[in-house]
Amino acid sequence: MANVKTHTFDAVIVGAGGAGLMAALYASKNANVAVLSKLYPTRSHTGAAQGGVGAALGNMEEDRWEWHAFDTVKGSDYLADQDAVDILCQDAIEVVIELEHMGLPFDRFPNGRISQRRFGGHTNNETKKPVMRACHAADRTGHMILQTLYQQCIKQKVNFFDEFHVVDLIRVGDSIRGVVAIEIATGEFHIFHSKAVMFATGGWGRCWQVTSNAHSLTGDGAAICLRRGIPMQDMEFFQFHPTGIFKLGILITEGVRGEGGVLINGKGERFMEKYAPTIKDLASRDVVSRAIYLEIQAGNGIDGKNYVHLDIRPETVNHYFAKDGETRRITREDIEAKLPDIADFTRTYLGVDPVKDPMPIQPTAHYAMGGIPTDVEGRVILDAAKKVLPGLYAAGEAACVSVHGANRLGTNSLTDLVVFGRRAGKDMAAFCQQANLLPLPANAADEVIAEFERIRHNQGSAKMFEVRNRMQTTMTEGVSVFRTKETVSASIAELKKLRVAYQDVGVQDKGKVFNSELLEAWELGCLLELAEVTAVSALTRQESRGGHARDDFPDRDDVNWLKHTLCHKVGEGEYKLDYKPVTLGRYEPKPRVY
Amino acid sequence: MQVNLRIRRFNPEKDQKAWWGEYTLSDALPTDTVLDLLHRVKWEMDGTLALRRSCAHGVCGSDAVRINGANALACKTLVQRLSGGNGSATIQVEPILGLRVIKDLIVDMEPFMEHYRSVLPYFINDSPPPADGRERLQSAEDRARFDDTTKCILCACCTTSCPSFWANEKYVGPAAIVQAHRFIYDSRDEGAAERLAVVGDTFGVWRCRTNFNCTSACPRDIEVTKAIAEVKKVLATGEI
Ligand SMILES: Cc1cc2nc3c(=O)[nH]c(=O)nc-3n(C[C@H](O)[C@H](O)[C@H](O)COP(=O)(O)OP(=O)(O)OC[C@H]3O[C@@H](n4cnc5c(N)ncnc54)[C@H](O)[C@@H]3O)c2cc1C
Ligand code: SF4
Ligand code: SF4
Ligand code: FES
Hints:
The structure holds two protein chains of two kinds. Chain A contains 17 helices and 24 strands. In chain A, helix 3 crosses helix 12 (412-434), helix 5 crosses helix 16 (516-540) and helix 14 runs antiparallel to helix 15 (485-502). In chain A, 63% of the residues are buried. The model of chain B has no long low-confidence stretch (mean pLDDT 96). The chains are: A alpha/beta, B alpha+beta. Bound molecules: flavin-adenine dinucleotide, iron/sulfur cluster (2 copies) and FE2/S2 (inorganic) cluster.
């Protein structure tokens, strides 16, 4: 097609959240890099992250990276690769300090050091007590990371292409030639011809009805890779965060429980005492989400409904502090100072003032543990033998290293972004220095242009939002906190129908300028595909581990299932599963109790 | 409840000039946000409606619009705050003022971002960090001095409600000054002189007529006018 504009760079980074920006800072030191983002960089969802970034700085009490590693491995239900976890926890300390040196305004302890707080699953391995490891800036840590990295990118004059929506990867055999993108403001297609490409496009929480994820989190990068022959790893593991605002899904950070907040059921009981006697409300997320579900199922929701309360009122918190023999106490002012944004959310959206009333919460679809498989340098791998596809990289939530295994520990995503974003950025620049720019194939953009023309001129009668609603409903019913063979199979059957219905989705907007309806329709295609991969992977794994809880197989089965799923797309709606061994290390799989 | 929604529409590929689109939603909830309503129009009635949005809870800064004449984030404005109390509401939504309209509610943000970049909105400190490889120290009090201005999400609600900016688009505007303040008042930063040169220029803080439009518009409750006054004070006294 004649009117496609071509640009040439050493490397293209797709996505300008924490992972993409960190990679950009490093890669652009030694290579000519373009960063493409469908949103203005500062709109990326990293900015929504609240509670903190995990690093064993030990600023207030003793902590060690090995403890952080153990907690991560245990949190992952032993599915994380321990070599990668070691890197995560060691590098974390250095990278958090580096962020401070970039000007990140962390909160401070009285001694002037970076302030840290407790978070779910973070413990002192000797005493088993919670440890302060989450480095934070009020409850807007992600906002500060995103702003700081973007500021540094401006300083370093990184090349940004803002509001460029990437829609395809140009792969020829086992080499990478660039990407195809749409300039949203004009609707024109562009080819970015490059030696290397990195996807840092974030998650796909929009597959579910109630989610903490932005409307833009539609899994584009993962879906593009899947379509270009990259398998998806561990997709059955999707995290449901226990505390989303009832119905809205807006996240209430675990930091609330870190500061002493407790979960209370309809009978007024602090029910986590039953499920996790040692660390109670600060157990891992999968454990707490399941507990909430079980309480609701048993009729113990508030007024019998499907939510429970999260209570951070000083009188409640101090009551339980006293009961647990803790000396600290909290005041209203502490809440306002440490959790200002949370207070603002519940006041704005619920009319609930958290210092006076408990907050209604329910689990919310939150985080993709799985994704594009990579090694510890962010290089994308193609199979169980870990064959690298040279020039292709992934980092951040879209990627699966895997440091989160079957369940991610709170604060470890921000750590993952900066640690592996940095490593991937460095490696990509080094790759570009020795690699040649290979020629573009003829008509590299034609296939995806044809798909867009199909959607634009489709006469079909299916409504995009209805197809999307049906997908979100079936994923919420069938592939949620708990799942069984029956529920997942029903979802797969419905998703197959939706794949057909999707072919009938048309758009009213036939124009070019800012045609967000067209792009939304294309994004829905990504979501549908990732939903199906998730369901297919979940159906096959006959055990319960971390975020994947099968009612029909309630136990973890290390003999048969201590392995990573790789799901390949082999045709429309056809998938082939394959398995990759877990890299074990210091920590032998043990039963998981909190 | 019934909401009568009036949306300012403009499609550069079709329209000579902007027009009002009228949409009736008979079953809106008082707790719906204006973004929810815009989504319903886009998804259920007219797919050509163009708007920016992402997070849907007031933290990404995408959806600044003018609602009933005042700037706000669509996702943070609840219908109940706009209803006349008689079980219905008329809500008017327009693009923010002072920036070129690209399509419907979407404006060209580039001039706004250019002002932002002009104040050197990044940490400057060329002295070596502590020899022990650890963080620079900062007291909790020093950290608190610039806390308010770290909250900015670059939504442009403030700048596009500012009469001085409407009068002259070269004025850097409140958002850029907020960003400058964030660094000028950071005890670790050493770039104050360069930044003050920019905001002390003819198109800097002295254009501000202190009428607080920006402060009332800020969805992050940043005391914008106060921050501007603090920057003026540094310029006048040389003391931070
Ligand atoms: C409400 C909330 C709170 C959280 N709190 C914490 C916390 O306290 N601690 C923690 O560790 N983790 C937290 N997380 C998780 C963490 O914030 C995310 O996993 C992480 O920010 C993802 O970052 P990312 O860089 O991978 O992607 P994102 O920040 O999501 O960025 C994705 C980028 O990709 C771009 N993009 C996507 N598709 C395309 C395309 N097709 N073309 C071009 N560009 C594209 C977008 O424009 C964007 O720039 C939280 C998550 C949520 C939702
Ligand atoms: S106070 Fe100053 S900056 Fe704010 S709106 Fe008024 S003139 Fe503009
Ligand atoms: S100061 Fe407030 S209104 Fe202005 S851009 Fe920042 S967040 Fe928006
Ligand atoms: S959509 Fe993010 S601020 Fe409104």
